[in-house]
């Protein structure tokens, strides 16, 4: 029955935890609940599980286990990198390079550092959301201590030339961090081959639990600790380990990287159907983000003459869950900083819709969206005096 149908197309906001992941986590709550710092067998068992998860994360990234540190999510990992590298390398310089389209976890931390006297360059992006390597090279100064550029954008899906950025950073001996929260499970990552010094990831974006993430820190990187307290995580990140979360993260990243090819193939097929269908059926529509260099699950549109919020509410009434801008910006009336950065006007940016596919979606879901969405857009436009005028003039 169509009325009861619920279709989740907001996988970039979060994903559900996979059954196999949950099954590995459950005994850690009830029977294997030891504290990894304890010397007894309960503690040793828990420590073994944490070590196993660390190995799984390391393997997925091409890193060493001792280069993986668990955090409470992507936001903490981003905060840790920016503050930790800025404070630890103050004597070397005070300049950080990032982009205008980062997640707020990076942008708001950079703003805080600016208040503390650091200088931050926010690289612009082109209309596809891509940075220019020439801009990057030109912005490097003798004071530059860190380049932090996201792997893939959470709103428009654009994937940056990470390997090339890594090469530039390495040549100039500047640390390179990438927020890969959206990339893990969608893109193949190899921190060594790509010259990545630090990388943030988050469990709930690839079918693991919420509130757990990790930061990869290349051996030898100068970075201060962010969370102080006990000696957990080899003295680098204090606080009793979230053992169930860590176990879940380890299982989820293993599944996500093992299945990456079949996952991508399925998503790309569905996404093509979705994008082609929307562009064909709905006039005055723009596809945001890069046509090819984008996450396999991301479709982001702007529909002229309508308001994204009313579109979302109408879709929700039909059981379709999408998003306008990122989960963090929805609820505010400002258009997304990402859509403004790719050069859209406030007016156009307000009519945006992000649909992000996931492993639980089917071709039938796309058929349903292609049936419902054009009707809703048409109805909302018929209430817009501007649209009536444009139509009348044609
Ligand atoms: C979701 C997200 C984050 C934040 O991760 P949390 O684990 O939710 O704190 C950071 N960066 C990007 C690109 C994201 O999509």
UniProtKB/TrEMBL annotation:
It holds the Pfam family Aminotran_5. The modification N6-(pyridoxal phosphate)lysine is found at residue 205. Pyridoxal 5'-phosphate binds at residues 74-75, 154, 182, 202-204, 240. [2Fe-2S] cluster binds at residue 328. It catalyses: (sulfur carrier)-H + L-cysteine = (sulfur carrier)-SH + L-alanine. The active site is at residue 328. It comes from the Bacteria. GO terms for molecular function: cysteine desulfurase activity. It is found in: Cytoplasm. PROSITE patterns: AA_TRANSFER_CLASS_5 (PS00595). Coiled coil: none annotated. Gene3D superfamilies: 1.10.260.50, Aspartate Aminotransferase, domain 1 (3.90.1150.10), Type I PLP-dependent aspartate aminotransferase-like (Major domain) (3.40.640.10). Its EC number is 2.8.1.7. Belongs to the class-V pyridoxal-phosphate-dependent aminotransferase family. NifS/IscS subfamily. Homodimer. Forms a heterotetramer with IscU, interacts with other sulfur acceptors. NCBIfam families: FeS_nifS, PRK02948.1. Master enzyme that delivers sulfur to a number of partners involved in Fe-S cluster assembly, tRNA modification or cofactor biosynthesis. Catalyzes the removal of elemental sulfur atoms from cysteine to produce alanine. Functions as a sulfur delivery protein for Fe-S cluster synthesis onto IscU, an Fe-S scaffold assembly protein, as well as other S acceptor proteins. This is Cysteine desulfurase IscS. It comes from Lutispora saccharofermentans. The gene is nifS.
